[in-house]
Amino acid sequence: MRRKQPGDAPASATEADLAQLSTAIAAGEDLGPFVRRAFACGRPEPLLASLRAAARDREAEIEELCRAHFHDFIRAVDDLRSLLADADALKGSLSASHAALLSSAAPLLASLESFLAARALAGNLSSALASSRRCVRLLALADRANAHLQAGNHNLYLALRAVDAIDRDLASGPEPLPLPTLRRMLLSLVPAVRAHAEREISREFSDWMVSIRAASRHLGQVAIGRSAAARQRQEELRSKHRPLEECITLDDDGVGDIDDFAAAAATADVADGAAAASFDLTPLYRAMHVHHTLELGERFKKYYLENRKLQLTSDFDVIAATPFLESHQVFFSQIAGFFIVEDRVFSTGGGLTSRADVDALWDSAVAKMVSVMEDNFSRMQTANHLLLITDYAALLSATMRRYGYPVGMLLDVLARHRDKYHDLLLADCRRQVVEALAADKFDQMLMRKEYEYSMNVLAFGIQSSDITPAFPYVAPFSCTVPDICRIVRSFIEDSVSFMAHGGGGDTYAAVKKYLGRILSEVVDASIQKLVDSGGGLSVSQAMQVAANMSVMERACEFFTGHAAQLCGVPLRAVERGRRDFPLRKSRDASEALLLRLLRSKVDEFMGQSDGVNWMADDPPAGGNEYANEVIIYLETLTSTAQQILPLPVLRRVLVAVLSHISERIVGLFLNDSVKRFNASAVTGIDTDLKMFEEFGESMSSLFVDSDQESAANEMKAALVEARQLVNLLMSNSPENFLNPVIREKSYNKLDYKKVAAISEKFRDSSESYFSTFGTRGARQNPKKKSLDTLIKRLREVS
């Protein structure tokens, strides 16, 4: 056997390769890998043999296929030859038909050529006519635009529409104009017309901006004036229906009142609408439409807003050259008119301005007005000036509120300066009250005519009776009372005006608070200052001041009712909340002054007691002289006082004077100038005291309407100290004073020390410095013994 070489491949491997080769040849795959591998192994012969065998198999298959399809091929060739013969026959037939067609179609072709030539000519003519009509239309549009331009600015919009039509025709035409000259002319004139329209409308808009600024001031004045008229009508309606307020209930038909107020408000709104319609916005609308046509709408909006901002800023400078008091109406009217115009532009401008833009302008205007008012209010020192500005600012607020603008910040400024306004008003009223008090001579006021009585008495409800007196009429008060009433009434009206139109809050509560301030801080303090200083007032003048205070008590009730009436508060509510008399300090001070002056006058008469003979042998007939003079003076004074002083005041004055007389009588006995006195002197003082007691009893008859018996007892009690002292001195048993029961019953007003001092001065008429030598061993007088016992015991107690 042959030894197997290392490089030989096994037989099974060769067979596998041949099988794969056969599969690849059958599949038509690439045989490159097999060839490379065969040559790489150095054994290509099997591969070549396999390839030759595959080639022979393929050739055998081809031969077999050709033998199978040979007859079909021969038949196909025969068919093709017969088809060629038919084609040659058809070709001949077609040539004959073509020749016949050419001979018959020659006239038709000539006619067709003539038709095509005519159609081309017709198309050229149609194109020429269309171009002519286009040129005529463009020239007509140009002529129309020229006519609109010559007609004025109110036709600019129509001219621009014609120019836009020309521009659209030139831009959207299927082909350019056949006339280049006309095209060049139109292309140059369209921008020129637009530029001219923009210049003209801008000039007209600028003129309108100047005119609308001047018209805004008048418009604001008219609108604010109508607000003032509406407010006046509402106040007149309130005053007309105010007398019915007390009797109207919820079941009453009060619809008429509401309708009246609604009608007043509606009238004001209609008037404002008419005022808003009175200015011309046509130039603004024209400028807006022209700029929209020029596609410059957004730029015009910005231009309009910027110019209006500049105008508003320049409106703020109205107050720069003149004082605010003189220019505040122009300032507020200009701003009101500005925003009335802006409201109309916003409503009818078609989006020219937005609500945000108008609100921004209003916010800047409010901030400026607030700043200006704060600055000027802080420097004002006159209440009337502050009220004038406040009232106009309140009218501005009412006007702008009807147009939907927020005015809360303006009203807040007015409310913040409420106290300052009333402080200035109080200072002004204080000056007037002081001047009125200084000018008054405090004599009873004489009224000669009925209108004077109505103006000075009925106007303030200070009449003591509803019956009209006879004239001439002497009033129980001086001219100060109606003067002060007028001052306070004016204060109330100014306060109500301020609070109702710009003060905010509860009007009546605030007015009542400030009414209390003027009565207490101004009227009460001024009268009290006058009384405390004395001012050289006589007794009659002081009595007149006291009488004035009683009248002022009725006037204070009128003030409260008047304030409530102006504020629309029912009087029954005011009566439920009535307070104490606010002038009680000055009333008490005036009564104290009167008493002080009366006491001084009594002291002046009592100073004449030096003429009293304290050691007289017989008591004076008819009392001492000083007592008669005091009685005459008091009777004269009382006859005047009972005409002007209220009975309670007169009663208090008389009681106090009699009490002072009692003290002065006791003081006579204690006077150091009186070294001794006897029973005759005591009897004379007893006579004087009886005269005063009779005077007090006669005066008690004046108080019939009150408690006459009580008044008599009160006046008698005022003299009780002097009476108890005289009774003690005239008693036969003075030592009974030492008995607690008797002292409490009969001598309870006497003081130990006073009794001791006076008792030591008391001597009988029979007693003298040397009488003891002549009466030694005689029986001692029981009264003298009792008096000595009293003196001794009182010394021990002391």
From TrEMBL:
Where in this chain does the record put each Exocyst complex subunit EXOC6/Sec15 C-terminal domain?
A: 410-761
Q: Does the keyword Transport apply?
A: yes
Could you tell me where this protein is found in the cell?
A: Cytoplasm, Cytosol
Domain Exocyst complex component EXOC6/Sec15 N-terminal residues, every copy: 51-224
Q: Name one GO cellular component term.
A: exocyst
Please, which domain of life does this record's source organism belong to? Eukaryota
A GO term (biological process) for this protein? Answer: Golgi to plasma membrane transport
Q: Give the UniProt keywords, A-Z.
A: Cytoplasm, Exocytosis, Transport
Q: Which Gene3D superfamilies match?
A: Dsl1p vesicle tethering complex, Tip20p subunit, domain D, Exocyst complex subunit Sec15 C-terminal domain, N-terminal subdomain
Extract the coiled-coil ranges from the record.
none
One family name in Pfam for this protein: Sec15_C
Return the similarity comment. Belongs to the SEC15 family.
Per its database record, what is this protein's job?
Component of the exocyst complex involved in the docking of exocytic vesicles with fusion sites on the plasma membrane during regulated or polarized secretion. Involved in polarized cell growth and organ morphogenesis. During cytokinesis, involved in cell plate initiation, cell plate maturation and formation of new primary cell wall.
Name of the protein in its database record: Exocyst complex component
What organism does this protein naturally occur in? Leersia perrieri
